[in-house]
Amino acid sequence: MNRFDEMSEPYKKVLAKDDDVHCLKAIYSKNTDALLNPITALKDTIFHIAAHDGREEVLRVLLEMVPPSKSAEVLKVKNIYGNTILHEVATTTNVKAARLLMEELLVLPGNDNRQREEILGAQNKLGETPLFRAAQYSCKTMVEYLATAIGRTGNLESHYRRNDGTSILHIAVIGQQFDTAIWFLRKSPELATYKDKNGNTSLHLLASMASAFKSSSPTKGIFKEFIYYCLPSDSRNKEGTNELTKNRQDRDLEQGEQNRGLNQQDYCKGWKMIVQIWKQKKMHESAVKLAKLLVETDASWFETHEPEEDDTILMERQEEEEETSKSNATANTERSPEPDTPLLIATKTGIVEIVKEILTRYPQAVYHIGQKGQNILHVAIMHRQYKVFHVLNDKEEAKRLVRGIDNDGCTILHHAANTKYYHGGTKPTPALKLQQELTWFEDVKNQMPSHFIMHLNKKETTADDLFKDNHRDLLKTAQEWAKNTSQSCSTVAILVATVVFTAAYTAPGGFLQIMMILNHGQYMQTVILLEEPLYSFFTVMDVAGLASSLTSVVIFLSILTSSLEFEDFHHRLPRNLSLGFTFLFFSVTSTMMTFTATILLLVHLEKKWTATLTYAAAFLPICLFALFQFPLYYQYFVAAVKSILDFLRRNLPGNWDFLQFIDDY
């Protein structure tokens, strides 16, 4: 057997899920020294692989074959990353496997506390101890168990930082182990003030994690959102339950066991989607709890920067001011970069929970100004964070924030016009995207003093000109989409009109010629099935289909002949498209109802199941049309309703603000 066979055979056995430990025992029983030989390209031993997978039984058998004199050596051997067996087992959730290794430490020759402390505090190449690794990858139970073991032999604080300055609280936040982070923070509150090499605290990192909070997470669809709100909150960490379970938890930690009692999530096993949503909801709740603790010690908002521009509009700029602005810009680029405050970072990422918590605890933080002379309202508008904008807009201080001008001479309206951080919006079509931007720009304009609209930034550009320049490509795309959609819908409407027009002169059942004796013997045609009740229904549906299809043709032709400029996409075009889609859908529905009435008039269906199949066949195209077109139709219908309500709100006397939609525009 060559060297590579000696490596591959035990590697395959340790990865096997049948726990056939006898094969491994047979391989190493003749040569126990081979237990420390690497079996992977990363210099992992058989212990590293078993520990990484949390294979408790495999570890037990392997450790039994290790002579007592080599126990310390086994626990000290490192792979290419400098990780020991404890580093690997710390990344799992198998506390029993960690307990097994702890027992091996306790039976070291001479009970050398210094040696046990050395093994528990062993660092890899990054300077991470097993506890540090557990904080990033494992569960809170594993962290508590390792911390308890370390507390008996050494100083827990020596495990709080790695070589690059990242603290154990930083790494827990990065790994989104928020329950672990809360545990560390309550044990050592000073961790909240620790900074990494970039000057970031743990709150800085948490404020940049959009997916960790409900307000900034992408929508999951109506069904998943319904499940999310129906699932109960995680109450395991609430005060009042700790006293009942504290003794049992302490006993479990001493024995390296996890609580085996049934929890609520056990009832959802097998429902992967529900388990995933519940896990995400618990993460959101833990993130909010952690944010509240971190905000208590955060005072970064107090260190504000003095803006270079006064809150006074300029309608003309001198050359001296331009040269000064260029020199200031050069000085700003040469200045060492500092991280933004957690308040501004949370505003950028749209985390409403952190923004609300900071402003609730420190109301004066709303006036904080960043390095670029931008206040929180500038940042929210620039990054299109609509939810944060509404939170700020409800505050009385917003009347003062709207007058702010940043170091580039830009007002909040300039930032609403800027597309630097625009990522396509939340609407499905180019026309709705442009309408969303127009509505956003208009709403921001309504919040600021009217004379600020004329203000020139340092590039001598007004907000209106900046909006048109930045949205010219989107306008072109929206124009092409509107024309192509109108042409396609017009074609369909004409085809429907042709069908229903033909049906009007082709009565089901045919015509009957009757001689009119009183009228010089002339013949008159009458519909044979005229007296049937369904014939009246046929006539009404046919006329309705013809009228609605021709109406939709007229509407779509009006869109094709319009100029399609910026102002058209704000209200008129979405309203016309909504009406056109409505009449087109009604015409298709009427046509299929006409077809159904024709079938029932011509064929007398005696069996109910035959009639049911006929109805199903008639309504199948309607259902498919509604299924595929309803999302788009819904968007344009909402846009049309919003424009009507907005018109009423602005023109009716009195306060009609309740008619305003509060959404993502």
Automatic annotation (TrEMBL):
Q: Where is the composition biased (Basic and acidic residues)?
A: 238-254
The UniProt keyword set, sorted, is: Membrane, Transmembrane, Transmembrane helix
Q: Disordered: where is this region?
A: 238-261, 317-342
Signal peptide region: none
Alphabetized SMART domains for the sequence: ANK (SM00248)
Keyword flag Transmembrane: yes
Q: Which domain of life is it from?
A: Eukaryota
PGG domain ranges (all copies): 480-600
Query: Could you confirm whether the keyword Membrane appears in this record?
Result: yes
Mention any one GO cellular component term assigned to this protein in its UniProt record: membrane
| Transmembrane domains' residue ranges | 492-514, 534-559, 579-603, 615-634
Q: Which Pfam families match?
A: Ank_4, PGG
Can you say what this protein is called? Answer: PGG domain-containing protein
Which organism does this sequence originate in? Gossypium barbadense (Sea Island cotton)
